[in-house]
Every structure is written in structure tokens, then in C-alpha cells.
Amino acid sequence: MTTERDSSPYVQVENLVARYGNRTILDGVSCSARRGEITVILGGSGSGKTTLLRHIVGLLTPAAGRVLIDGRDIHRASEEEQEAILRNVGMSFQGGALFNSMTLEENIALPIIEHAHANRETAYTLARMKLALVGLERAAQSLPAEISGGMKKRAAVARALALDPGLLLFDELSAGLDPVTARELDELVLRLKAQFDVAILVVTHELSSIQMIADRAIMLHAGKVLAAGTLDEVRSMDHPHVRAFFDRRPRSTVVQHGLLDALLVDGGDHGENPA
Amino acid sequence: MLTNNHISGALALAPLREQVLKRAEPGSRVVVNLSGVQKLSGLDAAALLRLVIEGKEKGIEVRFSGLSAEARQAFTGLDASLLEHAATPTESLSPIEEVGEQTLDLLATARRLLEMIGEITYWFFIAPWHGKGVKWERTGEQIVKIGLDGVPIVSFLSFLIGAVLALNAASQLRQFGASIYIANLVGVSMTREMAPLLTAIIAAGRSGSAITAELGTMVVSEEIDAMRTMALSPGRFLLLPRVLALLCAVPCLTVLSNLAGIFGGYWVGVIVLGLGSRNYLQQTSQALLISDLVTGMVKSTMFALLIGLVSCYRGFYVHGGAEGVGTNTTASVVTSIVLCILADAVFTTIFFYFD
Ligand SMILES: Nc1ncnc2c1ncn2[C@@H]1O[C@H](COP(=O)(O)OP(=O)(O)O)[C@@H](O)[C@H]1O
Ligand SMILES: [Mg+2]
Prior knowledge:
The complex is a heterodimer of chains A (275) and B (355).
Chain A: H1 2-7, E1 11-20, E2 23-33, E3 38-42, H2 49-56, E4 64-69, E5 72-73, H3 79-86, E6 89-92, H4 104-115, H5 120-133, H6 149-160, E7 167-171, H7 179-195, E8 199-203, H8 207-213, E9 216-221, E10 224-230, H9 231-235, H10 240-246, H11 253-261
Parallel strand pairs in A: 3-8, 3-9, 6-7, 7-8
Antiparallel strand pairs in A: 1-2, 1-4, 4-5, 9-10
Chain B: H1 13-23, E1 29-33, H2 42-57, E2 61-65, H3 69-76, H4 80-87, H5 95-126, H6 136-146, H7 151-173, H8 182-220, H9 223-229, H10 234-272, H11 277-287, H12 290-316, H13 321-354
Parallel strand pairs in B: 1-2
Helix pairs in contact in B: 1-2, 2-4, 5-10, 6-10, 7-8, 7-10, 8-10, 8-11, 8-12, 8-13, 10-11, 10-12, 12-13
Bound molecules: adenosine-5'-diphosphate and magnesium ion.
Adenosine-5'-diphosphate (ADP) is lined by residues 20, 25, 43, 45-51 of chain A.
């Protein structure tokens, strides 16, 4: 049982094509994530990381390709099947996306009441347990507006855990936070991996957090998967964009120069080798 | 074409922006010669990119020439998305394409609206049979918010309107010694027309706008998406309770408005004009027909539905972040009021011919 589960990925994205209008954002992306592993999605801003996550959870419908979660195609599932799939998925959004009109415990109790058909008391007890898991038991009665950015992210993680899902997706969990808070969140993700049997997909571009948490990495660039594999494999690749990312040369100057050229009529006075 | 407007030394961005955006024709191309500029700060570079983007919105293609290697660095330090946004070519549409585009927009709006109506209908009529009942608790909260909180303003304004109707009528009717007919006029105009419309306008302004703003904010902060990923349908949890609450609260407020308006007329008739209190009330009850009351209630229900659909739609399809919430909220109120008055006109015309 365990071995079978380990060998087949929990999430499988196959040749996903994503478009907004006639702009193609993802052009044949394939990737996967396994239980018990943290898979990190890398890529510059605007490379389509969020778009990929939104397709995985069925918020967007792919132009082509498919997404299998635990072997079931989320985009072709019936309404009930989709609900069953989603009950097994927890996602935290870039900005937290907590329900602003509800306290933290209400935020987490809501999905529990609706899906686990628990009574209010049980649901709130469970909600407080999830909050304790992320170190927020004292803020259970706070409204999202009353807590800090780092706490919001943690509360969003707690809500993603509400139904004990098999798949967790975290969009830019540690982005825009101070280093200490960011580190706490990384530690939290590692703890979740150790405690639960989940597949975890994390979008990030913080090098320190990649180094700390990633088992596998997928790098998106220009709509394609530029690199995929274990962290060490990806890290040691020679591709200039991968190198630019890991060696942290001024952020993808190659791309920037290319874009800038489109705005020049005479090609400008090229500094021969854009460093 | 404004080529070679040489800029020397420090970059004077404000005049440049003025010159480009105000003077250049849409559809033209402006080349800004930067060869005189040695050093460019990151801020200047960002402003130049913004100029390109602003130009793009107006159909002006802004390009640069003579960029020195040094000045170039200022651009590459910027956020890639800004540069990307500036560098993607404008898809300028021919007039025919534009008409086509607008038709498609209209079709898309119609489709989304129908989808929304379908969803609300589903959650009300069908889902309860599959164990997914209506969220009465949430609906109740909304009824309180829309109905109870609307009581003071609806009664106050209706009272005033009733009184004003009575005063206006008095100046005419007094000449014929028919002052008592004020009761008829106030009663019938309030119940058939003024109360439903006044209540609808207040509901659109107070509650419709609140609904749009609230839903819009939830869209912008990704709360709606978060709900969907938890397999909680926004149709069931957000839309249906609001529409139901309006359908319940607005007709109730209309009843209140009727009473307050008639009381306004009574107050003018009895206190100001000295008509007998018993007389006035008797006259009112004689004047009012059940059909007047029913007509008013039917209208009011129709208005509630319109306000509910418009405000939910506007909230749900917000574009452009927090700013979009603002514009959509205004649009929600205006659209609701316009549609209510239009519907009122159509409805009244139909009743005029078939009554
Ligand atoms: N709703 C949308 N409509 C149109 N374009 C979008 C939308 N959302 C994102 N995009 C565009 O798609 C690209 C990828 O966006 P996103 O997936 O958010 O990138 P990332 O999360 O990697 O920063 C960006 O260029 C962005 O402008
Ligand atoms: Mg993103």
C-alpha cells in the first residue's frame, strides 16, 4: 500500500496549456508531486506559478492538458467528484485570502462544519487545534485585520489543514515577510511534512527557503518547465536562467534586456555584454 | 510623428509626459530621443516605462532611441513585470473588430448573468433536495442588515414624500373644495408607485452598493477563490442569501413605506389642513383597492430581484483591484436604479392596458 502510493505521484500535471484570452501563459507544462515530499515551484514573477496552482485546484480550466489528483482528473470530474477531490486539497493564497468578516477560528471551522458535518462545538475545537498547530492558539478570536502578515499566512496554512488534506499548496508563503518570520514559516512547512502524509507544493522565490525546504524543484520559464528534478539536480544545471536564479545575478537581466530592446527603435547603444 | 525632440541634460519628465500624451494623435508613434541623457535614475526609468504604458492605453506607441549603455542599466534594475507590460505590443483593433469585440463583451455579460441566475436558481430549487439546504442563518443575517437597518431611513423619507404629495395635492384640490381627496391621491400614489420605487432606490443605494462592495472586496482579496478551493459554493453561501434577503426585506420595507407615506399624508391633512381624522382614514381605506396593494408588492419584489442580480453581478465581476471595487459599486447603484425605473415604466404600461 505504502510503496504503491510512494511510487505514483499524488498530483500529476500533464501537458497543461494555460491561456488568458489569447495570451499563452503555460505552454505544455508537466510536473508532479508526491506524498511525503515538498516540491517547490520556482520562476520569476509573472512566469505563471500562481496560474499553475489555480489550474491544479480547478479554479481555472486548462486550454489543453489535464491535472490528476490522486488519479482523478479534476477538470473532468462531476460536481460531486470535484467536491470530493477538493476536500482533499488545502491551498493558501498569496495574500492569505482569509475571510475578513470572520474570526480565525470561524475561518477554519467553516469548511469543517460544511464538509465533515461536525457540530459547531467539535468544529471549533478542531479549528483551535489547527491554530495551535501553527502557533496561533492565542489569536483564535482575532479578526484577520487585527493580526500581522506573518500570522495571516500561518492562519491560512491552518485553514488549508482544516480537512486533513492529502495535498497542500502554498502560494508565496514566505514572500514579503521579514527573514525571521519567513524562517518560521519554512520550519512550519517542514513540520507539516514530518507530521502528515501529504504532498506539499510551495511556490517561492526565496533562495533561503528553497534550500531549507525543497525536496524537488520545478522551474518555470517562458511558459515551459525549464528544469525539474531533485533540488540538487536542478541547482547544478548549467542553463543560464537556472544559473541566474541560483547565483542571484541581478534578476534575470537577460530577459530584461530583451524586453527593453523591444522599446528601442535604434537598438540603442548596447553595452555589448549585458552583465 | 514627433521624432528627435532632443532632451538634453537632466530629463524633464513632466513636460515630456504632457507633450506626448496631450499632443500626439492616437495611432501615432512617438520616439523619445534619449541620447542627451547620460544618467538615468531607476525612478526616471520607471516613469518612462509608465509613459509607454499610458501611451499604449491611448493608442500612442512610445519608443526610445539613443539610450546609452549607462542609462540602460536603470531599466534592467526594474521589476520585470513593468517592463514586460510596457513591451507587449498593443493589439490595436480596427473599427470593425472593435464593434465585434463589444458585441462579444455584451454576449459574455449576458452569458455570465444567465449563469449566475442559473446558479442561484439551482441552490434555491434543486440543491435542497440533495441535502444542500439554503443557508437560512446567513440569509437571516442579511435580512437584518438590509431590512432592519433600513427601517429608519425608509420610514422617514416615505413620511416626507407622503406629506409632500399631500401638500401638492392640497393646493389644487382646495380650489374645488375637494381636499378630502388628498387621502385618495396619497394612498394610491404611495401604494402603487412611490413606496415601491422609493424603497427600491434606498435599497439600491444602501444595500445594493454594500453587496457589490463586499463581494467585490472578497473577489479582490481572493476570498471567493479560497471558498471555491474549499468546495464551498459562492452561489450558495454568498449570492443566494443576499438575493433572498433582498426579496424578503424590500417588500417588507415597502409595506412600511406605504404606512409611513400614508401617515405623512394624514399628518398634513389632519394637522395642517384640518380635515377630520376619522374622515381621512375612512377615505383612505375606501380609496385603496387590493389591486393597488398587490401591484405595489409585485413591483417591489421585481425591484428587489433586479437589485440583487445587479449588485451581485457587479460585485462578482470586478476588474482592476480595489479601484475596480469603487467603480463597480457606483455602477451597481446607477444600473439598479435605471433598471428599476425602466421596469416600473414597462410594468405600469402593461397594467394600464390590461387592468
Ligand atoms: N486574470 C488574469 N488575466 C489576464 N492575465 C493574467 C491574469 N492573471 C495573471 N495574468 C498574467 O499571467 C502571467 C502569469 O501570472 P502569475 O501566474 O500570477 O505569475 P506568478 O505567480 O508566477 O508571478 C502574468 O504575466 C500575468 O500578468
Ligand atoms: Mg504569483
